[in-house]
Amino acid sequence: MKRKPARRRRRPSPARGVELKRDLPALPEAAERALQDVMQALDDGHCPCGDLDEVRMALREALNNAVRHGSHLNPRKRIRLFCRCDPTHGLRIVVRDEGAGFDPAAVPDPTQPENLERFSGRGIFMIRRLMDEVEFHDAGREIHMRRHCQP
Predict the structure, then answer these.
(1) CATH for the 18-147 domain, from 3.40.50.300, 3.30.565.10, 1.10.3720.10, 3.30.450.20
(2) DSSP letter for each residue of 43-67
(3) Which residues share a beta bridge with 92?
(4) How is residue 69 annotated by DSSP?
């Protein structure tokens, strides 16, 4: 009796890229699981887009904002996450919540003297410093983050 060779799980090809989508309830533990899924996929897919620890921090802030500020910890509301990394287009991450939205231009600058002692209000500032491009869409309900890949 001839044995079939064991099937190996193929690792994603760096040339093909990595793509991941998640739809999750607006709960911190669900956001943390989604974050870990994305980071594992990027690590397994050999995403050549710089420091993944910086990406982790930016994504954690975006998910935290969607869960706490956008959806107010309401598990009936959904957070949608899309992530794609490939050498041609770089790393693209989109986080969308079902909240009322906000005006990103109206968020106070955390580096201004009157805001230095505040306990919160630095998330968007950090995301903008950690990622190469950041855009808000749909009245602030959706954040698009991009990181360019190094050749």
Answers:
(1) 3.30.565.10
(2) HHTT--SS-HHHHHHHHHHHHHHII
(3) 84, 146
(4) I
With a cut of 90, say whether residue 69 has pLDDT above it.
yes
- Please provide the average confidence, as pLDDT, over all residues in the chain: 88
Q: What is the pLDDT of residues 17-62, one digit of tens each?
A: 899 999 999 999 999 999 999 999 999 877 888 889 999 999 999 9
Q: Which amino acid is present at 144? A: H
Token pair, residue 106, equals: 């109206």
Instruction: Return d(Cα 2, Cα 149) in angstroms, integer.
Output: 46
Q: What pTM value is reported for the model?
A: 0.85
